Amino acid sequence: MTDLSPSAPALGRLTENPDWIYLLREFESLYRQGSAGGSTTIRSHMKRVRDRLSAVIAGNAEIAVTPAGTKPVTAHFARALDLGERGAMQGMARALREVRDRLNWEYGYDKVPKGLAQKYAYCEVLGPRGPVLSERLILGFVLFAPKTTYPQHSHRDIEESYISIAGAWSENNSAVYAPGSLILNSPGDEHRITTGDREPCLLAYAWTGPEEMLHAPGMRLSRPRRKG
Fold this sequence. Notes:
The protein is 27% helix and 25% strand.
């Protein structure tokens, strides 16, 4: 039984809010039908995500009333959705468009570098804080403006995957990832994201880990490493 705070009253159940169901089914399809590229580690992560997501859908999860909010980077959101609807991730982009006015875009850090505050934000769609309530899984989206560098960071005890929805990006300068690509970061893995010069980048993400960490992930940017 989920304990809803007074600031997040219940809006109903999933079956009463079909737009959220359709969005979650797009996630489920990605983690069920997408390729693990022969990696047993990625395959295991995909199974964890879809098993936990299937339980949320089968359990007709509660929907919480959460405030919608924007950040400067959401000026690029419409363009990112347009790009997504033209490509391989059109189902996800179209489902996301239907809930776009109910998303709460956040930074997740107590202190955000001034430049980054203009070029980045994320929104959760499923997790302990809602809007779709779950104790064991977080799903959401992160949006980057063109020419963005998201600094080095890691997540303690949290396993994270990104799936590209629109735009080109790289992680740790190792490759360029196109829509449909899945990237896995194990707990503690340091990673840095850069985006293309001309278009915004929209990524879907999934977090799995201990419930206490999903409730309070304590997001922090890594300290720059000294040269020498």
